[in-house]
Design goal:
With about 70 residues, the chain is mainly α. It is about 65% helix and about 0% strand. It is built from three helices and no strands.
Length: about 70
């Protein structure tokens, strides 16, 4: 199942993405975002997020933030 989304990108980011597409690294913006989303999700598992949240809570409880 495919879904259509609309996003707003800052001009400098869009320019960088267009350069990557022009260089042949991606077919188009859809290809880039599919690749980037897959890459991100494969590397950020639920377990990693749980560890991150636990760290943030612990840091907050110990006032490690300014």
């Amino acid at each position: 199942m495919n879904s259509k989304i609309e996003i707003v990108l800052p001009a400098p980011l869009l320019s960088k993405l267009q350069k990557l597409i022009n260089e042949g690294l991606f077919k188009d913006l859809n290809d880039f975002f599919e690749t980037a989303g897959t890459y991100y999700l494969e590397r950020h598992t639920d377990e990693m997020w749980e560890d991150y949240v636990k760290h943030e809570i612990k840091a907050g409880l110990h006032a490690e933030y300014n």
